Amino acid sequence: KAGVTQTPRYLIKTRGQQVTLSCSPISGHRSVSWYQQTPGQGLQFLFEYFSETQRNKGNFPGRFSGRQFSNSRSEMNVSTLELGDSALYLCASSTSPPGANVLTFGAGSRLTVL
Amino acid sequence: DAKTTQPTSMDCAEGRAANLPCNHSTISGNEYVYWYRQIHSQGPQYIIHGLKNNETNEMASLIITEDRKSSTLILPHATLRDTAVYYCIVRVRNSGYSTLTFGKGTMLLVSP
Q1: Between chains, do A90 and B94 touch, taking CB under 8 Å as contact?
Q2: Where are the beta strands (DSSP E) in chain A?
Q3: Which of B43, B100, B32, B46 is nearest to A45 (CA)?
């Protein structure tokens, strides 16, 4: 079956712009999480959604937001981009209600902010 | 969640067993040990998890010490494609959140 699909895979933006990333979970998976990966900070949790509700949020500024749709697809948005937002953004889905801890990750969206 | 300690890097010859250690001395009774790996430029991949008994699947074996303060992930016959960063994570199961805290992991280099 199809894995977790993230689009776009690569994108370049300039400071001050905003970006929207999309994630389609594995069919039947209702929990979607987002992570940011940078060389300096490693993998850091952004937020988690289940049944269109944000269940948990990491320690990121309000410029980072997300949502989940009724079909479990999720989007995350970063407004007023900064150079430090350059990172690999990873989406993960899981089959159970939040807490199962067995996540399937997508290949990520690599964002470069110039 | 309990903190884990892993070596920064390890080397392994192709075809040999790779034994990756993880220390989690502050683990509590309801916390599981999870292993993920991340091949360069890809998303992390779930490998295996366990509570206190040894576990084996098609990818690897997980050996947890009797006192549960440490564990070892074993790749029985390492291949070049096993070169990756391996993360050991200790987490309560069914906590209500699927938030994983990734440390720096162990960079495993499998050489011919």
Answers
A1: no
A2: 5-7, 10-13, 19-24, 31-38, 42-50, 53-57, 64-68, 74-78, 87-94, 104-105, 109-113
A3: B100
Q: How far is CA B106 from CA A22, B21, B39, B47, in A?
A: 30, 9, 12, 14
- Per-residue pLDDT for A99 more than 60? no
By C-alpha distance, the chain A residue nearest B105 is A42
Nearest residue of chain A to residue B42 (CA atoms): A107
From residue A70, how far is each of A29, A34, A52, A98, B105 by CA, in Å?
12, 17, 6, 16, 35
Distance from CA of B46 to the nearest CA of A (A): 7
Task: For strands B61-64 and A42-50, give the pairing.
Answer: unpaired
- For residue A97, the 8-state DSSP code is S
- B44, HSE (Cβ side, Cα atoms, 13 Å): 34
- Mind listing the pLDDT tens digit for each residue in B46-93? 999 999 989 999 999 999 999 999 999 999 999 999 999 999 999 877
Q: How far is CA B3 from CA A50, B9, B69, B101, in A?
A: 26, 18, 11, 9
* Element housing B45 (H / E): strand B45-50
Give the phi and the psi of residue B80 in degrees, each rounded to 5. Answer: -60, -30
Min CA distance, A7 vs chain B (Å)? 14
